[in-house]
Amino acid sequence: MVITSVKLNDVALEQFATHRAIHTVPAEDPRALGAACAGDIRAAFDAYARLFAAHGIGAEQVRAWGAAALAATHEWAPSLAAEIRGVAEGSGLAEWQLGALNGRTEILAAGAVTGEGECSTSVVLADGSPRTVQTWDWHDTLRAAMTVVSWPGVCTFTEAGVVGKIGVNSAGLGVHFNVLRHASDHADIGVPVHVVARRILDEASTVEEATDLARSARLSVSSVITVVTADRARCLELSPAGVGVIDPADGVLWHANHFLDAALAPGERTTEDVSTTFARGSWLRAHTAELGAADLSARARALCAHTEDGAAVCAHPDMSLPPHERWESLATISLDVVAGRLHVHPGGPCSVTPESWQTFTVRPAAPAR
């Protein structure tokens, strides 16, 4: 495996780490990927260990849940479990530690952690070239874990050691990603939602294929994966109670961090007193025209809403709070599924400029052997 590691723009080195360009698929030599990313993966695990501890989740419990996440991955996606184990070996971490990184959403939910929520996503279907954009909101202490990894067939924005998150594949399909919380979420760790997103990127070329894959996974927590192709889009609301489907209305899809599916919404666990998700959803609905702009930066600027505007779509951390209670829009991301491009701005929408975007193009998948 040949891995090219490229530092991204000088002004963003503290915000955005590296782009790893892999010349074969990770499963063919995951140990090399783990070795190349060892420092970043160890730092990411240490940061998550601190986050878990701050929420009262002890080290032994993290170990057990990390092992369970890897076991659930092995049952549903054996090749991805083998990849995670190989990356662990190459990085010098234990397998359960990589399981915990990939299952971090499951571990936080199992520990009954609540919070502001994260991420606002918009898709506007237009003339065979969907206009997509989202914020990726998370704790500012996890900023350094952000990375882009690409190999033949897939390009994904993710966190060090995590198999995938937001991205695009060479079949012309892309995914956005938001967290959800549902009454059916539980501590019997299931397939990590990040593994579901990655397998969709690996295997799906249509919205229906992505839907079938999502429905085949045994889940223990909730998230929404927004799937986009040149002419279709769909929000897949994942939960242990089932997978809800939200199709576009008049060519428009949006999602924040609450359920929209009529059957799943009664189990909503996110409340208005702890999250801005409902206000952000209203903002997205009200700014469809701007969010459908052909110009990427103009589209991102439509997400420039702060608390004083009535919707904290662009989040900034309150530094008076402890680290595990702070939230920030760490990245602004758009997909061009027609051209196979992933556009990433390191930071929130309010700091976007035409020059601040980093663009990554997915390479064609290697021919089947």
Explain how this protein is built.
The chain has helices spanning 30-36, 38-54, 59-76, 78-91, 95-102, 104-110, 193-203, 207-215, 277-286, 288-291, 296-301; strands at residues 3-7, 18-22, 120-124, 131-138, 146-151, 154-159, 166-169, 174-180, 222-228, 233-239, 242-246, 252-255, 328-336, 341-346, 358-361. The protein is an alpha+beta fold and 369 residues long. It has 2 domains: 3-110, no CATH class; 120-361, Penicillin V Acylase, Chain A (4-Layer Sandwich), CATH 3.60.60.10. Strand 5 (146-151) and strand 6 form a beta hairpin. The chain starts with a strand and ends in an 8-residue tail after the last strand. 54% of the residues are buried. Mean pLDDT is 92; it is low at 6-15.
Number of helices: 11
The total of beta strands comes to 15
Determine the CATH superfamily of the largest domain: Penicillin V Acylase, Chain A
Q: Write out the strand line-up for the largest beta sheet, numbering strands in chain order.
A: 1-2-5-6-7-8-9-10-11
How many domains?
Answer: 2
Domain Peptidase C45 hydrolase: 132-280
Protein name: C45 family peptidase
Pfam families: AAT (PF03417)
InterPro entries: C45_proenzyme-like, Peptidase_C45, Peptidase_C45_hydrolase
